[in-house]
Amino acid sequence: MTFFTIVVRSLVRRPVRTGLTLVGISIGIAAVVALVGMAWGYEKSIVRQLDVIGIDVVVSNMSGGLMPKVFDESLEEKIAPLPKVAATTSVLMQMLSIEDAPMMMISGREWGGFTWDKISVIEGRLPHNATERAVVIGRLAAEVLKKKPGDTVQIEADELPVVGIIDGQAVVENGAIILSLNVLQEITLNEGKVNFVDIRVTPGTTKQEVTALCDSIKEIFPEGRAMVASEVVGTSQGFRVARAMSWSTSLLAIIVGVLGVMNTMLMTVFERTHEIGILLAVGWKRRRIMLMVLLESALLGLLGGVLGVALGALGLKILETTPAIRGLLEPDLSPRLLLISIAIAVVVGVISGLYPGWRSSRLSPSLALHG
Amino acid sequence: MIAPPTSQTGDIVFEARQLAKEFDGGQVAALRGVDFQIREHEFVAIVGPSGCGKSTLLQMLGSLDHPTSGSLTYRGASIPGMPDPSAYRAHHIGFVFQAFHLLPTFNVVENVQIPMFEGGLSRTQRRERAVDLLKSVGLDHRLGHFPSQLSGGERQRVAIARSLANRPSVLLADEPTGNLDSENAVHVMELILKLHRELGMTLILVTHDPSIAAQASRTIRMKDGRVVPADSPHP
Ligand SMILES: Nc1ncnc2c1ncn2[C@@H]1O[C@H](COP(=O)(O)OP(=O)(O)O)[C@@H](O)[C@H]1O
Ligand SMILES: [Mg+2]
Question: ipTM > 0.85?
Answer without folding.
Answer: yes
